[in-house]
Amino acid sequence: QVQLVESGGGLVQAGGSLRLSCAVSGRTLSRFNMGWFRQAPGKEREFVAAIRWSGSRTYYEDCVKGRFAISRDNAKNTVYLQMNSLKPEDTAVYYCAAQDQSAIATILSEYDYWGQGTQVTVSS
Question: In the chain, pLDDT over 90 holds for what percent of residues?
Answer without folding.
Answer: 88
